[in-house]
Amino acid sequence: MKRNLLFLVALILITYSCSTDRSGKSAGNTSAADSVSTNGVKAVQVVRTEELAKQKISRSIEYTSNLIPFEEIHLVSATPGRIEKIYVEIGDRVNKGDMLVQMDRTQLHQALVQLQNVETNYARLDTLNRVGSISRQQYDQVKTQYDIAKSSVEFLQENTVLRAPFNGIISGKYFENGEFYSGVPNTLAGKAAIVSIVEIDMLKAIVNISEKYFPFVRTGMDALVGTDTYPGKTFPGKVLRVYPTIDEATRSFTVEIRINNPDEVLRPGMFSRVTMDLGEEMALVVPSVAVLKLQGSNERYVFLEENGVAKRVTVRMGKRFDDKLEIVSDELQEGNRLIVTGQARLLDGDRVSVVNN
To answer: Where are the beta strands (DSSP E) in 104-175?
Structure first.
């Protein structure tokens, strides 16, 4: 009985071994996705393809920026001196021409007295000059003194009173009444100021755009500005200025966007996203599943089918359209056969069989 049992086990093992030898693999390891045949040659991969063709797309770009005032002025006196009175506080609204700061007027009063004296002497000599009673040289000397004294008074009158150069809001106050203004820089901008004023009924966004878009950006183009503060809401803007040079370090150029802000809901310093429509153009657009990513890097690639062989092509990604992607590569042309199914298990140079039905 024991001998018969041993014989039966041996027979089962021999049968299993022969079955494995004939198939080249264990039945439990059989898979339709296996790519190696019994002789070690890689099998032909079954794929589906579609022909590359250009489509018309709307070209738009988006860049981030911080909003800044349309105008910002740091007001100072032309010469150091004591501050007599500051008439505004931070947050006050002012109109163009409003008096903001009164500087000490001692020098102005002295200059006015000197001007009066010189003016009296000048008027007397002017009368004598008309009748030819004095030399021309003497008259010219007095007239020069009068012109200098008058210019000095005008200068002091202008600089002892600081007025708002435009409608705006006081954004900074750096001194108090009676303090001495020395002219030393004291603002975040690295400039000297007694008070600062900003215009915010219009704002600006300054963006640095890739040089490849330089031919498409023009002054007056429309732009849309969005902020995290107001999600889902956009504000209209226009290209105010395009800088004429390209930054060699960043390969970009600078653009200023003007944003109307009549309700003043936007404020300087807000983070923003600026979008510009550059018009329509033809581009290669493919199913997003056809674009693969090299593991451990940002490299993207696709596979083309050429004469029954898979060819790997590195691409750059452009704009996304739902489940499709724009791709860019000098190696791609209209009419190429792009592999859209079965590409995930391919290597460059693999043999493929196209089944499109």
So the answer is: 161-163, 168-173
CATH number where 334 lies? 2.40.420.20
Amino acid at 47: V
CA distance 271 to 224: 14
What would the pLDDT profile of 232-266 be if each residue is shown by its tens digit? 899 999 999 999 999 999 999 999 999 999 999 99
In the structure encoding, which two tokens stand for residue 265, read together?
A: 């809901």
State how far Cα 137 lies from the chain centre. Answer: 64
Count of CA atoms in the C-beta half-sphere (13 A) of 313: 24
| Best CA proximity match to 348, nearest among 299, 307, 303 | 303
pLDDT value, residue 197: 96
In a domain, 3, yes or no: no
Measured between alpha carbons, how far is 127 from 111 in angstroms, rounded to an integer?
24
Residue 209 tokens, joined: 């755009």
- pTM over cut 0.85: no
Q: What is the CA angle 52-54-56, rounded to 5? A: 150
